[in-house]
Amino acid sequence: MGFFDFLKPAKKGEEAALERVEPTSVYEAKDEVIVSANLPGVRKDEVSLNITPGMVTIKVQRKRTEEHETEVGAQESYSAESELQSFTQTVSLPALVRPRDAQATFKNNVLEIRIPKHHEAKRPRGTFVPVR
Description:
By secondary structure, this protein is mainly beta.
C-alpha cells in the first residue's frame, strides 16, 4: 500500500476520504524549512512525526472498530471488528535543520511543520515533535 492509497475512498461502511491527495510539499525559506501535507479524513491524534537533521517522517495510524448487535427471537448476538491501518512517508529536507525547535500544526486536515535551519557544522540529533 502506498502513502496515498490509505486516503482513497473507503469501502462500504467506512468514512470516505478525498480521492485526490496533493503530495507532501517541502519549501526552503531563508531561515527555515517548511513541510506541508494534505491529510483528508485524518484526525490530529492519528498523526505522529519524527524529525532528524535531514529528514521528516510522517506516520498516520488509524484504528477502526465496528460493533454489531443483532436480535433473533430470544437470542442476542454481539460482534466487534477492529482494524489497524497505518502509513508512513519520509521526505528528505533540502538543508540541515534543528529538530528540537520544530513546530507542527494541523488545521483543516493540513499538516504544516516549520523547522529552523541549522547553521552550525555539527549535526544535531533527531527528536519527536508533538502535533498541535
